[in-house]
Amino acid sequence: MNKLSYIFTIAFLIGIFHTSAQINRTLKTKVIDILAQMPAENNNHLNAILDEAIALDVEGILLFTENLKPLGTGDDTQARYLLNSLAVYSAADKDKAELVEQALLKAIDKAKDDEVKTFLIRRLQFCAGNKSIAHLSGLLTHNNLYKPALATLTSIGTKEAGQAVLVAFSQAKRFGLC
């Protein structure tokens, strides 16, 4: 009887360790697994993938953005497809939109290439709120980023966003930039 309980105990512990290993997958592994499923088979599959991505929180979404490459330098199709879908999908839920907005703003700060920054700024058009205004306003004087920043501020559509555009325009006019 003692041997039997010993065998059950070992089998139980092996099962726990195996399950624990699956639960404790790293964030990077989860990101890779999600990207491997892109493009999704159908809308239901896409929604499930996007819910998984949102569950990874800001840090996980930032890992998706690290897969972006300037156009012509590598294939980042899966990451762009996911991030665009995530921005559009999150717009329907305020909490999800704020989470994605926060991640995209951080990603813009981390990105080194203007084309990648432009892509990220344009994703904000779907999910940005007033929290993005200060950040985007600072880009209105950047030669390569002012157009997507202006478009995103316009899409926010709040009084505060309009005021930011007006202030930037007044400053540009004062310095003879327009």
The averaged pLDDT comes out at 90
Radius of gyration: 22 Å
The helical percent reads over 70%
Largest sheet: none
Terminal Cα separation, in Å?
89 Å
Structural class: mainly alpha
Compute the number of strand runs: 0
Count of discrete alpha- or pi-helical segments spanning 4 or more residues: 10
Question: Could you spell the SSE succession in H and E letters?
Answer: HHHHHHHHHH
Counting structural domains, the number is 2
Indicate the low-confidence ranges by residue numbers.
none
Percentage beta strand: under 5%
What gross morphology would you assign?
elongated
Quick tags:
178 residues, mainly alpha, 10 helices, elongated
Describe this structure in words.
This protein is elongated. It has 2 domains: about 90 residues, no CATH class; about 50 residues, no CATH class. Helix 4 packs across helix 6 and helix 5 runs antiparallel to helix 6. The model has no long low-confidence stretch (mean pLDDT about 90). The chain is built from 10 helices and no strands. It is mostly helical.
Topology at a glance:
Blueprint: H1 2-23, H2 27-36, H3 43-55, H4 57-65, H5 77-90, H6 94-110, H7 114-127, H8 133-137, H9 146-156, H10 159-174
What can be said about this structure in brief?
By secondary structure, this protein is mainly alpha-helical. 74% of the residues lie in helices and 0% in strands.
